[in-house]
């Protein structure tokens, strides 16, 4: 019984001591794409994220409609940068993906595609800071 408790505590401390990779939000370079056709949505998202201290390098539109907002990390397989942005915006982890893009990762390393559910993540108050 004591052995099981000791093993449990050691496993707990092993997982607890594993460090989460450090993320510096100023180093995250974001491409925002309007994935739902809402006029000026990418621009609104850009204003909101820049106001919050993020580096948005470009905006645009997708050629397909997205029902859900997606965040893609193009640099790290562990998705650390995309997860950081997703956590800030309260986007669920299952909407965060890794898409390797070695050609563009020096220019932008995260893509935020704003889907039809964007109102959950980009506040209406963004209109006030435009």
Notable characteristics:
130 residues; alpha/beta; Alpha-Beta Plaits; five-stranded mixed beta sheet; 3 helices
Structural account:
It is a single chain. The protein is of the alpha/beta class and 130 residues long. The chain has a single domain (23-129), classed as Alpha-Beta Plaits (2-Layer Sandwich). Helix content is 28%, strand content 19%. Helix 3 (80-89) links the parallel strand 3 (70-73) and strand 4. The N and C termini lie far apart (63 Å). The mean pLDDT is 84.
- Low confidence ranges: none
Q: Rg to the nearest angstrom?
A: 18 Å
| CATH-derived topology | Alpha-Beta Plaits
Main pleated-sheet profile: 5 strands, mixed
In CATH terms, what is the architecture? Answer: 2-Layer Sandwich
> Structural class per helix/strand content?
alpha/beta
Shape: globular
Along the chain, the helix and strand elements come as HEHEEHEE
Q: Which SSEs are present, and which pair or pack?
A:
Layout: H1 2-17, E1 29-34, H2 41-51, E2 55-61, E3 70-73, H3 80-89, E4 96-98, E5 110-114
């Amino acid at each position: 019984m004591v052995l099981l408790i000791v093993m449990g505590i050691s496993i707990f401390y092993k997982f607890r001591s594993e460090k989460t990779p450090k993320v510096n939000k100023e180093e995250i370079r974001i491409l925002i794409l309007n994935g739902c056709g809402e006029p000026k949505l990418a621009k609104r998202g850009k204003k909101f994220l820049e106001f919050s201290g993020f580096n948005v390098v470009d905006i645009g539109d997708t050629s397909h409609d997205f029902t859900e907002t997606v965040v893609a990390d193009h640099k790290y397989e562990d998705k650390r940068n995309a997860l950081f942005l997703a956590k800030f915006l309260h986007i669920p982890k299952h909407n965060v993906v890794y898409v390797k893009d070695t050609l563009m990762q020096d220019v932008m390393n995260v893509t935020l595609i704003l889907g039809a559910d964007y109102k959950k993540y980009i506040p209406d108050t963004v209109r006030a800071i435009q």
